[in-house]
Amino acid sequence: MAKRATSTPLVFAHYMLVMQPKDGDYTQDINLAKEAGIDAFAVNYGGWNVDWTQQEGYLEKFYRTAEALDFHLFLSIDTTSVKDTGMIIDLSNKYSSSSAQLKVDGKVMLSSFQTDPPAWNWETDVVAKINSPVLFLPGSLSDDAVALFSNELPGDGPFPWIHTSKTADQEHSLDVALASQRDSSGKKWMAAVAPWFFTRLSSDKNWSQAQDDSIFVDRWLSLLSLKPDFIEIVTWNDWSESSYIGPAAQATTDVYWANLDHSPFRAISKAFGKALKAGGKTVTVDEADEGVYMFYRLQPASKLGSSDTLPLPTDASNLKDEVFVVSLLSDAAEITLKSGDASPVTWSAPAGLQKTGHAWSLGTQSLQAKRGDKVVADKTGPAIVGQMDKYNGNVVAL
Fold first, then answer.
1. N or C: where does the chain have the smaller number of CB atoms within 10 Å of the terminal CB?
2. For 225-242, b where at least 16 C-beta lie within 10 A, e where not — what string?
3. pLDDT on residue 4
4. pLDDT of residue 254
């Protein structure tokens, strides 16, 4: 068995550079990421309808802002649009000396998002021409653990994306295989974690995900045991795929499902990130960090909108019509959930982490957590309705 590096694992968030903050200022995003225990943004360079001169300007400003705020970035090259290896080399060389450039074991961090292998050879055409040592973790949609760690995939280890069509058990089985291959190969492994996925842009891009509520909390928990070298939250701000943990108020897209709050996923990530870096397999919560959260869709999974022109999204049948409650507690507390006109449900939640699911009733959703006379959480969310104008498979979290 190859010897593994024992450096502290790091947590990243995938930042879509084409999705600019409304005011063009990265300060809020960086400060929120730091508050959530995120070590760096993986900056997705490329995307759709890219103006490359504009994109270079965005990146320059991002690095300068990160320098001023003592935060780190690294490039994640989007090979669905980047076709020029010279561009990758030039950008890597330009920012390799920046104080904001993430370096791991003295090496410039570099990654990619790719649906298929690019036309070039990463090792000879890119990495070898960068003027600093590079730690390269290429992205992949493959679910072949052996191939991902073989010499056929270039670099220092793989970054497999979330497989939205796999069930949570199937994804976990793949993670177990990836951890085993990592241990035997001595390479790095960067795992992906997503809060949610849903998009409805066209007949060709109309899907949800098969893991439902297990995609985030359950996956984080399983990864604590498997101990990847890095975890990348995918994403910070891909509003169009509902995978964001960044502030929804910053959404610079007109897709109707992208304005739902996901900020509790940052708080949950912070707790898991602390556990990961401490080498723990469970989550321990300090009183200052405790909170109780709920997330749910605003409509039944099987109900098309009154003015819909598209069919139900792929994997909608895997989604449960439930309100999911996540508690992060320093000590036990009593939680009460009131869903619509149904009778309230009350239970005792233990210290640490707990996630429960509760069948919903249409109407307003409210949650309260108490410990004796102390109110730990008290929140009311938007109503769940029987039918919307257009199908919305995103979740609101509060």
1. N
2. ebbbbbbbbbbbbbbbbb
3. 43
4. 80
Of 353, 348, 340, 346, whose CA–CA distance to 380 is shortest? 340
What is the mean pLDDT of the segment spanning 194-217?
97
Residue 195: name the closest of 253, 272, 128 by CA.
Answer: 272
- The token pair that represents 169 in the structure block: 């058990």
The residue with tokens 């590096």 is 5
pLDDT for the residue numbered 370: 98
Q: How far is CA 182 from each of CA 138, 144, 149, 178, 278, rounded to the nearest angstrom?
A: 15, 13, 7, 6, 20
Alpha helix ranges (H) inside 251-341? 264-278
User: For position 250, what pLDDT does the model report?
Assistant: 86
H-helix segments, the chain: 27-35, 52-68, 85-95, 145-148, 168-185, 217-226, 264-278
Residue with tokens 């045991």: 225
| pLDDT computed for residue 253 by the predictor | 76
The whole-angstrom separation of Cα 350 and Cα 144 is 38
Residue given tokens 């497989």 in the structure block: 163
- For 334-346, the pLDDT digits (tens) are 999 999 999 999 9
Q: Is 335 helix (H, G, I), strand (E, B) or coil?
A: strand
d(CA 105, CA 39): 15
User: Which positions ≥6 away from 378 have C-beta within 8 Å?
Assistant: 367, 368, 369
CB count in 10 Å sphere of residue 44: 26
The whole-number pLDDT of residue 100 equals 98
Per-residue tokens: 31:
């400060």
